Amino acid sequence: MASSTTATALPTVPKELERIPLVNNDRTPGWISDRVAGICEGKAPMWWWAAFIPSLMLAGVLLAMLAYQISTGVGVWGNHHPTMWAWDIINFVWWIGIGHAGTLISAILFLLRQKWRTGVNRAAEAMTIFAVMCAGIYPAIHVGRVWFDWFLFPIPNSNAIWPQFRSPLMWDVFAVSTYFTVSLLFWYIGLVPDLAVMRDRAKTKIRQFLYGLFSLGWTGSNRHWSNYEKAYLILAGLSTPLVLSVHSIVSLDFAVSQLPGWHTTIFPPYFVAGAIFSGFGMVLTLLIPLRRWCHLEDLITMRHIDVMCKVTLATGSIVGYAYVMEFFIAWYSGSPNERFHFLNRALGPYWWGWVCMMGFNTLVPQVFWFKKCRENLWFVFVISILVNIGMWFERFVIIVIGLHREFIPSNWAYYLPSWVDIATFLGTFGLFFTLFLLFMRFLPMIAISEVKGVTPYADPHMPQGGAKGGHH
Amino acid sequence: MSTSAKVFGIMAEYTTPADAMHAAEKVRDAGFRRWDVFTPFPVHGMDRAMGMKNSKVGWFSFIGGVTGYTSGMLMIWFLNAIDYPIIIGGKPMFSPFAAFPPSYELTILLGAFGAIGGMLFLNRLPRLHHPLLRNKRFALATHDRYFVVIETSDPKFNEVETRKLLEAAGSRSIELVEE
Fold first, then answer.
1. Which residue among B18, B105, B140 sits closest to A245, beta carbon to beta carbon?
2. Which of A121, A143, A426, B92 pairs with A466 at a CA distance of 20 to 30 A?
């Protein structure tokens, strides 16, 4: 190999070509362990309790609503003919869409060698898992008789009947359950080395035992790392087509039907873009306060916020393009039903839903073209919430506006949610935040070993990593 | 436990990944077999420094994926075309297009099981005990230190010579680890 002859000269990078570091203030690997693991050690801070107790109470509301709905029937919801699907499926699609950012960050950005992902991937993956849990509740309960949910799976039974796989709803069962399982495994495998960090720092017997058990006896052996990294790469490679397929298949629940506004080929890519858009909104909503409260500004830097705002802008613009293209195709198709649906979408009784969707998803994120807007954390925080309100309205527009005017005008109706619909939806936030707060209290919410790995201290070719100059 | 505890191996501590990597190159060139490097994160270039081959995890995942796809297709064909055929909207009883999405998901699911199962199998994990995990100093292997460990079971192991080799590679802290 060509090696430099002067052993002392390490190449120096001109100031203007230096990249913004991934970890600020030149933090060492030891500092990263102490700071991240420190969040899970010692007494819980007051803000944690102030967030946890209301979340737990809200999760209790969810439990009460589920008990009420299951014991009474789906009639407690506002769903009626012709709006047979309403908040149940809106919230299912909304929550599962939020999950997509976690997998995008952990899998797609891994394959694209986006090293900044290491600062946010763990929290985003946890968000994915909890969001998919909230999503999974809805299809399970919207069938009415939840005790027949096992009919969805190909389980041999005394009725000698089998599920019908030509229906996209069956595809959805497989997509969502695979998504949940693989996301959980991916998250857990990523956690194993960090659980070993927690084990080696544990002061009490019970922590030592539990972290020790779940870290599977991890030692940090390089022979293990070699297989581990290969498995991680393969999981990223498998999760990438998985995450793209999940929301595509969710969109097929609509697109395979014959309904105007649903029967569209643009749905799969447009649903995936919207899912990633809303997911990044949620990641920003969670991490902007957390980086402050947990003093993680050096690990989740302004650069992270900046790139996430840019992803939000890009996906928001893709979604905006899809909204406009749907109108164009409705006109271009010449189908009177399609034309009516889209005119009704913008000018009908639910015009306000359409305005919220267009405004929050297409126009609001455009402010992220400006650096000043990406650097103001309060501003980014507010926009990240508006994005998710907008994405909720997108599903409202598709589902409720799509259904409330059906082919026979005598069936037309105006849908309103019941109080049970609203309380159940609020309850899912309780479940989500309860799980997320428990996660950040007991598990390292930043991938410790991965962040260490992207610092210059980890690179044997950098002076911080021990390079003496020249070729080793 | 007992005073005459058996020795598992010799453990040398390094403070930078570069030092550990140079030590690994020396140990590799000396022809040791039963030895390992322990790092808080994967160090790039370490596999080559240790003379390791490409990981075989991919094969486990591949077999998992193929099993997933074929079992998905066969299952749907058997369930909907043979065992319980019902006419739905005039569609064929079995079509690879309608059967594709669930089979695709099963490919990914079993491929992921294969990758994780294969990784755990090749690493002989989970294990509840390891001699190194009892060592106080070794706890830093998950913090910010880098260790090279040569086991006594290695045919080339010789306490004095091996210690010399690790010292020459720049370790300032070398100790014996009990079984």
1. B105
2. A121
pLDDT score of A368 more than 60: yes
Whether residue A413 is contained in a domain is answered as: yes
Mean confidence (pLDDT) of chain B: 92
Residue of B99, B120, B130 with shortest CB distance to A219: B130
Residue A264 belongs to a domain:
yes
Within a domain: A19: no
What are the Cα distances from residue B132, in Å, to A141, A200, A335, B151? Answer: 50, 12, 72, 11
Give the ipTM.
0.94
Confirm or reject contact between B22 and chain A (CB < 8 A).
yes
Class for domain B7-52+130-178, per CATH?
alpha beta
Q: With an 8 Å Cβ cutoff, are A460 and B21 in contact? A: yes
Weakest-pLDDT range from A13-27, A363-377, B54-68: A13-27
Say whether B22 and A458 touch across the interface (CB within 8 A): no
Compute CA distances B151 → A216, B132, B164, whole Å. Answer: 22, 11, 15
Q: How far is B54 from chain A (nearest CA, A)?
A: 8
The domain of A326 spans: 40-450
Provide the residue ranges of all domains of chain B, joining segments of one domain with +: 7-52+130-178, 57-122
Percent of chain A with pLDDT over 70: 97
Report the residue of chain B nearest A454, measured CA to CA.
B41
Backbone angles phi, psi at A181, to 5 degrees: -65, -50
Q: Is A322 a member of any domain?
A: yes
Q: How many domains does chain A have?
A: 1
pLDDT digits (tens, 9 = 90+) for A132-164: 999 999 999 999 999 999 999 999 989 889 999
**Residue B75 — very low, low, confident or very high, per pLDDT cuts 50/70/90?**
very high
- pLDDT tens figures, A164-189: 999 999 999 999 999 999 999 999 99
| Contacts with A378 (C-beta within 8 Å, 6 or more apart), sequence order | none
Interface of B with A in 29-88 (CB under 8 A): 36-47, 50, 52, 54-58, 61, 65, 75-76, 79-80, 83-84, 86, 88
CATH number of the domain residue A56 falls in: 1.20.1630.10
Q: What's the predicted TM-score (pTM) here? A: 0.93
